[in-house]
Amino acid sequence: MEFIELSPDSSNSALSILGIREQLVHWDKHDTLNLPPKSRFGFVLAGDAVAQFNNGVTCTLPEHSYFSCNEAATIVGGTGFLIELQDYSPLHSIGGPVEKWGRLKYIDGCTDTLLLPPSRLGEPCLNALYFPAGITQTLHTHPSVRIGAVIEGSGMCHTPSGNFALRPGMLFVIPPNALHGFVTSKFPMTVVAYHPDSDSGPRDDDHPMINRTIVNGTSAKHIEAIRTL
Predict the structure, then answer these.
(1) pLDDT, averaged across the chain
(2) Which of 75, 95, 115 is where one domain is finished?
(3) How many domains does the chain have?
(4) Has residue 27 been placed in a domain?
(5) Number of DSSP helices (H) and strands (E) in the chain, helices first
């Protein structure tokens, strides 16, 4: 199966069957989540949520805001989801609401924005993907899993197994190497997508701080003798 809808009751069993280590936690406006320390990405699908983190930060998370954390937290209000991460400790970050159009050009008229970027090359990330109305995306695959949510608009996911309707608030998973393409008709659509890995991002020998440190006209990137071991 190239596309699987994730429901609150069965999402983690579906992910486990696919061999995906990440786990999902759903919440709605009636819940109070008391979360133990764990690495997480989070997203507010509807309404406003209030988050109190164990590091002393308390904040209101408006609809379509996002965050990453690795400490204990309490979340009240709104509707949203958490992706519990494995073998990764993210920076504590809070952002949003998601903008109406992407900062980067993608394919077939679509754009995207890196919401929670990797702090180092290879680390997980959270992205927003924007589809204009009337888009038929080129069929394609990804080398790793994609866990996504439709946050605005509607469309279809076209696969060799059939077409799957996409609606606001819907969570889904696309397994590695599954052939698929998104389609919109009269209305645009916005999706957030979790990637468990990345092939771009900073490295110890390639990041803005070291690249733009110049010694006698040469970037410190190229001077191994002074680079921190």
Answers:
(1) 96
(2) 95
(3) 2
(4) yes
(5) 2, 21
